[in-house]
Amino acid sequence: MSGLDQDQRVHRGCRDKTTVANDSSETCEPAKQPLHGLKLASHAVLEKAQQRGRLKCSKCGGSRMFFCYTCCSLVGVSLQEIPSVKLPIKIDIIKHPNETDGKSTAIHAKLLAPSDVTIYTYPCIPELNKHKVVLVFPGPQAVSIQEMVQCLRNKIDSGPHNRFSEPCVKRLKREDVTDATHNENSSKSGPRDEKEISKSRVFPLQQVVFIDSTWNQTSKISTDERLQDLVQVELKMRKTCFWRHQKGKPDTYLSTIEAIFYFLKDFHEHCLVQDYHGEYDNLLFFYSYLHSVVTKAKTLAGKC
């Protein structure tokens, strides 16, 4: 197996059928190929780097391919050769302290969207405003992305002196989110440019928290009292294409980079209320290449 075969952290989503790739020669089974049709930058730079082989990280001296997961820096490729993704909101990733850095896909997000992604190692958690931050994590109180904006507004409306937040409105339709945004914009007088309108649509969400760990280790972080007041969001209708699936775990457990990508895609469509044209596809730049390399290696080894 190639040295590129990295393990990944998992996030739980819900049930769905993934897109089937047209080229079945590069996949073990159709359900494992949801990466077809992404608008990605050329992988030529990664192909060349792979041909050269592993190099030593200039900072820590570790043997690395493409990037150093310890130093969060590129190895064998330059910043100008990889895509840069601008995100509409800030992403905070809380990483479990006992997890090996080389097994995390969180580094992908940091390298590809450096100005919008921050990685913390638990127990370090940034100061979070419960009125403007959500936690992407499943649970009995978790809501969909469509319901998320209304839940945050409910928290604000409940006031700082109300200890308990109002329950979130379930099954909020996309039209409800659009109408609420429109009414908020219309209530303010004076001309507004496109940037201001876009910002008001995002309001009140400013920050999203993801937990980066294996599923069996998530409870230590998810039950931390500093995260308890946050609205929890559950990603629905998604399946992972993780190439080293954990035994006994369903395929609705997403890697961290998958969870970030799917959240942003749904946020773009349901909260910004805009058609999606691949704005965040390059967050899967490294992930999609590693997926293809591992899948081809398994096929050649007759393991598919």
UniProtKB/TrEMBL annotation:
InterPro entries the record matches: DTW, tRNA_Mod/Golgi_Maint
An example molecular function term from Gene Ontology annotations: tRNA-uridine aminocarboxypropyltransferase activity
S-adenosyl-L-methionine among keywords: yes
Occurrences of domain DTW (ranges): 64-299
Keyword flag Nucleus: yes
UniProt keyword terms in alphabetical order: Nucleus, S-adenosyl-L-methionine, Transferase, tRNA processing
Pfam families cross-referenced by the UniProt entry: DTW (PF03942)
One Gene Ontology cellular component: nucleus
EC number per UniProt: 2.5.1.25
Family: Belongs to the TDD superfamily. DTWD1 family.
Job of this protein: Catalyzes the formation of 3-(3-amino-3-carboxypropyl)uridine (acp3U) at position 20 in the D-loop of several cytoplasmic tRNAs (acp3U(20)).
Stored PANTHER family: NATURAL KILLER CELL-SPECIFIC ANTIGEN KLIP1, TRNA-URIDINE AMINOCARBOXYPROPYLTRANSFERASE 1
Protein name as catalogued: tRNA-uridine aminocarboxypropyltransferase 1
Originating gene: dtwd1
